[in-house]
Every structure is written in structure tokens, then in C-alpha cells.
Amino acid sequence: MQRLMHCLRNWWLICGWLAVASSVFAASQTDSVTVGYSSFAGAYGPLWISVEEQLGRKHGLELKATYAGRIRPHQLLASGEVSYVVATETGALSSHILGVKDQAIILTFINKVDSGIFSKAEIKSPEELRGKTIATGRPGAFADTMVRYVLRAKLGLVPDRDVKLLPMGEAALTFPALEKGIVEAASLTMPFNLLAKKMGFRELVDYDRAGVVYPYNTVTTLRQTPAKNPELTDKLLKSLIEGIHVFKTNKQKTIGVLKKYMRGAGDDILEETYEVTKAGLETVPIPSMEVVKTALEILSYQYPQAKQTDPSLIIDPSYVKKIEQSGFITSPYKK
Questions:
Q1: Which of 7, 155, 200, 335 has the highest CB neighbour number within 10 Å of its CB?
Q2: Residue 63 forms beta bridges with which residues?
Q3: pLDDT mean over 98-124
Q4: What is the pLDDT of residues 166-212, one digit of tens each?
Q5: Is the separation of the CB atoms in 215 and 109 below 8 Å?
Q6: How many CB atoms lie within 10 A of CB 117?
Q7: Distance (Å, rounded) from C-alpha 119 to C-alpha 183?
Q8: What angle do CA 317, 216, 117 make, to 5 degrees?
Q9: How many angstroms from the chain centroid is the CA of residue 82?
Q10: What domains appear along the chain, each with residue ranges and CATH number?
Q11: d(Cα 183, Cα 110) in Å, to the nearest integer?
Q12: In whole numbers, what is the pLDDT of the chain averaged over residues?
């Protein structure tokens, strides 16, 4: 009997040790998440830095990034292929406008639009675009939406009547079309707008100077994703916020990362990309209700129902606000 009691005591001790070990192992487990992104521009630098510098590891996160390619990044969300995307916010905005309200912006990197319409040198004014062809992004994508807005609201030209639009994709595709003379003008984002300037193409419209404000580069997810796993969302956002800090404070490291992803960009283009992007990056990247309202106004030229769309359903600033209130965002800049 005594021997039996001794065996039982040892068995309970082993069970207890296994329970403790199991809880410790669970606590030390690292989450893994893949973020989709839509372009090879400087605005995506904080994401790339977070991946390359493995900034998530201190938070228990293995962070990876995947290029969406010709698929809209927001389609990756809908398919479940990724849980978060970094992209311009036209996809989520247009989804809400059209009645699909499951996406939410949870962080905004940039509200500045460092892009514009460039043309052949012989086209000397925006009015001379009448009868010409502009290469734009995919139908409904940011570049397409912005060109349509600027033509109507700023230049008094009717898209597809006064000016022909040729949807081609991101700037990596529209720039060669301009360069080879396939089109007379193109919508270009960084760094291709910088290349165009250096090659003598004329900047007909600078969106920033035209007063355009837009949630240009954001983190978007399905609304239920952070609700189901707030800890994972917190880890991801902290990693990306640290990526912003590295971008703003470590030029050499940042340009090294940009060079890896923006293949073929010369040192002068990388230098200018860094400076322009740094100036536009939000230190405290809380999604802005006012900026989303402005974006809906821009989209109303394409989708009249945008005027009735509730902007409060499109953003969820609570996660970044909570991180800000903890002092996590500003404290590294004080060191």
C-alpha cells in the first residue's frame, strides 16, 4: 500500500510538472503571420524593414510579407490567403461603398499622395490632355480612381470621353507605356515619378499640390480578425510601428532594405525616395476619420453612393490608440 501511495505521489508530481512545462511552452510559442502588399514603393518600407530586421521576434511574432502581384491585395483578405494587407485604401473604401463592410483600416502609414500625372514633354498643360490617352491602374484601384477624380474635379475633363484611360496596373507597368510612347501620359507613383522627372517627362499634375489627401498606405484586415485575436494584431502593429521608427531614424539601414525590394532603382532615386517617404510617414499612425471622409468624397465622383457611406465603419483606430497610450510609440524617439 505504501509503495502504491509513493507511485501515485510521483505520478501527480510528473503530471504537475508536465502541466507547468506545457503552459510555459505555450506562453513562449511564436505566432506567425504573413502580410500581403501591393507595390514596390518607398511607402512599403516599414513593412519590409519589419520583415528584414525580424522586429516581430521580440513580441513573439514571425512576420513574413508576400507580394500580391496582379491580384488586388484586398482580394487576398477575402480569400483568406492572408489576414492583413498593406496597400492603398481604395479596395476597402470601395467595398464599403458597394455594401461589403467587413474590412477595416487599423493603421495608416501615410496620408500624403506622392504621385501624379506625367506626360510627354510636348504636352505643356493639363488641358492638352483632351483627346489623349492616360495609362492608369486597374479599374477601381488607387491610380485609376485618382486620375478620374483629378480629371473631373480639378481639370473639368470627363474620363473616357474627353480623355481615354488605359488601365494597365501599378506604376511599374504604366511607366514603360509612357516611356515607349504607347500612351501620351501616365499615372505614376514613387519611385517612377522621380524617374520620369529625370528623363524629361512633364509633371502635369502633382496630387499633393492639387490638395489631395488620402489614406494612401494602410494596414487593412477583416474586422473579425483582430476581434478574434487581439494579441496577434497587437504584435503585428507594434512590429510595424518599430519599422516606422527604424525608417525615420536609420537612413543607412532603410536605404539598404529599399534597395533590396526596389530592384533596379539607382542610388539617387533611393535617396530621394527615402527623403520624400520619411517626410510623409506618420509617427503615430492612427487612422484618421477626416482623411477617410475626404477619400469618400474623392470616390463619390466614381461611386455617387460614397456620399452615404459611414466612414466610422471603415476604420478601427482602437488598436493603435491603445499602443500609443502605453507610451510604446513615442518612447523610442526620446532615447
A1: 155
A2: 33
A3: 93
A4: 999 888 899 999 999 999 999 998 889 999 999 999 999 999 888 88
A5: no
A6: 28
A7: 9
A8: 165
A9: 14
A10: 30-111+213-334 (3.40.190.10), 115-206 (3.40.190.10)
A11: 29
A12: 89
